[in-house]
Each structure stands twice: as structure tokens, then as C-alpha cells.
């Protein structure tokens, strides 16, 4: 397998990859107020997409653009014998940079389109930014202050914005390779920050050297195990976890 930078021309392929990897990931469905898990997609895309599918693709494409706007980087993995198929992807933002920091980034990246009432609407923005991201920031800032009394802040870290590995390539240590690949960009002295939304995923990160520094439950009783509302499944009474993790290394 080879790892390289994703090109801007590959944003659609990256968006489809994330769309399919996160079909039943609760927070992605919760942000979008999804009634059911969306159907997977293949490239080339069909002429007609559901509103749920097109909105999800817009979200991942806007995230890619926002990552580039803030000086971050996107790394993709593919089988050497099939360089046209992405089997892993990681989005990173470097120390002192986070997405949508600039006043015009929400426009340049295309995130504003998600606020249309037929897409995520205002509720989607509130869930994504004012609830989910705010919780991550609160837990991360508290952890960094506790770690060294405020010498380092959460924004001093390398931040793993998003990572996924295709089912066909799991069990080969690819997530660990992607994390080490990103870490190599900034050096061993820089802590790496990320969040997980499932305990089994957090366990994978623990094996790569991360420790849990904060956990909080949100969306209590709002959605089912997949983050949806109309699948006939019981809603998760205790809520879903946001698990913030850090690999401190020599920081």
C-alpha cells in the first residue's frame, strides 16, 4: 500500500469514500438529522442522488476544502496495484490551525450550503459546531491545562480531523500507519489530538499510544445506535460518547 497527498481533483472520490465508511456512524447521522442510514454510493456518481446523500457528500467535500484553507493536509492510501481506489484517508490540521478559523472560510469551503433548510439547516450547524465541536474543545482544553499547567494548549497539537479505513483493508494496521504518517509531518515533540465516538474505535487508538483525556455523553435519548430517528430501533437513553484522546509523546 502507498500513502500520498490527496489532490483537490480527488475531493469527490474522498467524499464518496467517507460517505461509505461512515454510513452508520452515529454523529454523522445525528448532525444531519438523518431518519435512516443512507445507501452507499459508487463512482461515477449516479445522476440522481437523495437529499441525504448529496448533503453528506457536500459535508465531506467542504471539510476537505476547509482543511486545505487552514493549511492542513489530506493523506490517502491505495493498493499499489490499484491506485484508483482509496482504501484509507486521514485529514489533519496542524498546530495553531483549525478549520473555519478565518472569517470567510465558511463561504470559501462551501459549509454555508449545508445550512439550507432542505439540507442540515440551522439545527445541523448547532449540533455540529455548538454541541459536538464545542464539547471536544472543552474536554481538550481541560486536558491540556491539567497535563502541564497550561504550558501547552490544545491548539498547539496536531489534530486528526477525520480518518477512515475501508472494510476491505482493515486488520492490517493501516490506521496506525496513517497516524504515524501524519505525525511525521510535525515531529515527535508535538502532541496529537483526536476524538472517537465509539469505544471500539478508541481501543484502536489506545494501541497506537493515545490515552483518553475526557469523555462526555451527548444526544441523550435523541437517536438510535446509528444516530438515526426512524429506523424502528430503540433510542440510546444514556446518549452517545465523545471520547477525546491525546498522544503526548515528549510534549
TrEMBL record:
GO terms for molecular function: acyltransferase activity, transferring groups other than amino-acyl groups. Transmembrane segments: none annotated. It holds the Pfam family Acetyltransf_10. SUPFAM superfamilies: Acyl-CoA N-acyltransferases (Nat). Residues 154-221 form the N-acetyltransferase domain. This is N-acetyltransferase domain-containing protein.
Amino acid at each position: 500500500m502507498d500513502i500520498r497527498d490527496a489532490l483537490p481533483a480527488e475531493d469527490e472520490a474522498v467524499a464518496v469514500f467517507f460517505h461509505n465508511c461512515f454510513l452508520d456512524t452515529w454523529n454523522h447521522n445525528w448532525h444531519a438529522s438523518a431518519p435512516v442510514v443512507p445507501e452507499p454510493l459508487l463512482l461515477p456518481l449516479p445522476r440522481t442522488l437523495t437529499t441525504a446523500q448529496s448533503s453528506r457528500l457536500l459535508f465531506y467535500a467542504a471539510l476537505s476544502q476547509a482543511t486545505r484553507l487552514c493549511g492542513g493536509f489530506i493523506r490517502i492510501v491505495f493498493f499499489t496495484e490499484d491506485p484508483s481506489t482509496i482504501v484509507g484517508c486521514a485529514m489533519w490540521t496542524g498546530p495553531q490551525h483549525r478549520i473555519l478559523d478565518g472569517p470567510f472560510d465558511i463561504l470559501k469551503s462551501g459549509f454555508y450550503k449545508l445550512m439550507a433548510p432542505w439540507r442540515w439547516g440551522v439545527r445541523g450547524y448547532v449540533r455540529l459546531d455548538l454541541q459536538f465541536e464545542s464539547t471536544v474543545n472543552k474536554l481538550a482544553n481541560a486536558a491540556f491545562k491539567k497535563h502541564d499547567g497550561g504550558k501547552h494548549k490544545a491548539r498547539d497539537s496536531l489534530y486528526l480531523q477525520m480518518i477512515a479505513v475501508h472494510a476491505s483493508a482493515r486488520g492490517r494496521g493501516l490506521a496506525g500507519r496513517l497516524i504515524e504518517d501524519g505525525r511525521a509531518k510535525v515531529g515527535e515533540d508535538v502532541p496529537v489530538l483526536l476524538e472517537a465516538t465509539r469505544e471500539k474505535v478508541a481501543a484502536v487508538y489506545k494501541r497506537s499510544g493515545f490515552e483518553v483525556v475526557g469523555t462526555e455523553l451527548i444526544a441523550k435519548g435523541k437517536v438510535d445506535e446509528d444516530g438515526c430517528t426512524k429506523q424502528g430501533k430503540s433510542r440510546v437513553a444514556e446518549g452517545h460518547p465523545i471520547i477525546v484522546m491525546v498522544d503526548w509523546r515528549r510534549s
